[in-house]
Amino acid sequence: MPLIISPKTTAEVLKTFTKKLDLQKVPDSNNLFWHDNFRNAFYEGLNGRTKVIFTGYSGAVAGYSLIEYATHYLKDDPRPEVYFVGRVYAFRDSIFEPGDIVYARDTFSPDSFEQSIYNNARGRCIDNVTLPDSRLLEKILGISQEKSLNFKPAKVYCSITPGYLPHFTKPMQLMDEAKWRKLALDKMDKQECDSGEYESASVLACSRLFEIPAVALLDVKDKSYSEFDYRLASSEQKNHALNSILDVVRESIIR
Predict the structure, then answer these.
(1) Helices (H), strands (E): how many in the chain?
(2) Which residue in 254, 5, 252, 218 sits closest to 140, CA to CA?
(3) Span 139-161, mean pLDDT?
(4) Alpha-carbon distance values, 196 to 37, 106, 107, 118, 163 (Å)
(5) pLDDT of 166
(6) For residue 75, what are the CA distances in angstroms to 37, 69, 210?
(7) Residue 161 burial by CB count (10 A; 0-12/13-18/19+): exposed, middle or buried?
(8) CA distance 228 to 204
(9) pLDDT at position 209, please?
C-alpha cells in the first residue's frame, strides 16, 4: 500500500490533505506504531488505498517513521510505495522560484542518520540510495504532463545538524553555519545541490534500503537572491503547489 510521508503539520496542510485524500485516523486496532507521535499522526485515505504519516521536520524522525512502518507493515504489503511530500529552499543560482514544484532527482545528507543508512546500504551492496525510484518517477512525471504541471528536477541537500561556531552571538547562527542557508549563496556548479531541506534524503535512502519504490515531491517555499534579498512564496502559491502535488500523487495511487 502506498505510504505518504510529510513533515508538514499545520492545520491548513492537514485540511488540504484531508480534502484531497479523504483522510481518516488509522483505527487503533490497525495502528502498529509504538511511538505516540507517530501513532497520533497516522492516517488512511482514498478508501483504504493509502496511508499518510505526518512526522514534523527532521530527517532522522522522517526516516525512523519509515523504519517503524517497514517493520510492522512491509511484510504483508503487496504494493509498497513511498511518496515524500515536502518543501524546499532554493539556492541563489538555481532555476527555481518560490511557488515552483520540484522532484528530487538526487539528494545528499552529511548528517549521522543518513550516513548510517548509506553505510548499511553499502554493506548490503545496494546502490543509488540517494536517488528516487526511476519507474515510479516516470509514472509521476507522466501524470504531471497530462495535468500540464511542470515539475522541475532538483538535487537536494538535507541537513538539520548544528555547525561548529562556538563564538555565536545568536542561537540560530549554529544552524545557519551547517545547513543549506550558508550554501545557498555560494557559486553553484551544475553537478552540485541547488536546493535544501531536511528529510527527503533520509526517506529516499531508507526506502531504497528496504526495497520500496519512492519519490520526493516538493514545493519551493523560499529563495535567497543575495545576502539581503530573501523571498517567501505567498500563501496562495504554497496552497496551489501543495494541491498540485497531491493531485499527482492521488492519481498515481488510484491507477
Answers:
(1) 9, 10
(2) 252
(3) 95
(4) 25, 11, 9, 19, 16
(5) 86
(6) 23, 10, 11
(7) middle
(8) 33
(9) 97
Q: Which three cell numbers stand for residue 250?
A: 492521488
Q: How far apart are the first and last CA of the chain?
A: 13
Considering only CA atoms, which of 112, 54, 98 is closest in space to residue 195? 98
With 0-12 CB in 10 A as exposed, 13-18 as middle and 19+ as buried, what is 134? exposed
Per-residue cell: 193: 545541490
Residue 235: beta bridge partners? none
Q: State the cell numbers at 86.
A: 515536502
Length of the chain counted residue by residue: 255
Full set of structural domains in the chain with CATH: 2-254 (3.40.50.1580)
C-alpha cell at 10: 499545520
Identity of the amino acid at 205: A
Cross-strand partners of 43: 25, 52
Largest CA distance in the chain: 55
Q: Residue 104 has what pLDDT?
A: 98
Give 151's strand partners. 101
Question: According to the model, what pLDDT value does residue 190 have?
Answer: 57
Provide the 10 A C-beta neighbour count for residue 238: 22
235, 239, 241, 242 alpha-carbon torsion, rounded to 10°: 130
Single-letter code of the amino acid located at 128: N
Q: Which amino acid is at 21?
A: L
C-alpha triplet 161, 7, 22: angle, nearest 5°: 175
Pairing of strands 2-6, 24-25: unpaired
